[in-house]
Amino acid sequence: MAKHQCPNCHSPISLSYLFFSKYTTQYRCVKCSALMVSNRRRKITGLTLALFSSFLYSLINSHVQNLFLTTLVVFIVFFSILWLVPNQVELVDEQSKA
């Protein structure tokens, strides 16, 4: 069972949505057309990781003076942890929105 999947049909959610979308962006499942939005867990995870990433960046940058390497390590850690946290989306009731 995949970590990031549609709650309706269990098809995988694209990586581009998880990594590069805003927290207010809605996602429509390719397979069943269910509408999803980021839930509170994704928002808290993103905020926590942003704070952790800034701390990690300053820590690594004080020891390694290579800006590219420091930024690369922070991005890899950020996206890896973001990918490991499951259940970051929930279904949206389209009837109540209309």
Please characterize this protein's 3D structure.
By secondary structure, this protein is mainly alpha-helical. It is built from four helices and three strands. The protein has a three-stranded antiparallel β-sheet with strand order 1-2-3. Strand 1 (26-28) and strand 2 (35-38) form a beta hairpin. Helix 2 (40-63) packs antiparallel against helix 3. The protein starts with 14 loop residues before the first helix and ends with a helix. The mean pLDDT is 84.
What is the N-to-C order of secondary-structure elements (H for helix, E for strand)? HEEHHEH
How would you classify the quaternary structure? single chain
DSSP strand (E) fraction?
A: 5-15%
Q: How would you state the average pLDDT, rounded? A: 84
The percentage helix is: 40-55%
Structural class: mainly alpha
Task: Summarize this structure as a short list of keywords or feature phrases.
4 helices; elongated; mainly alpha; 98 residues; 53% helix; three-stranded antiparallel β-sheet
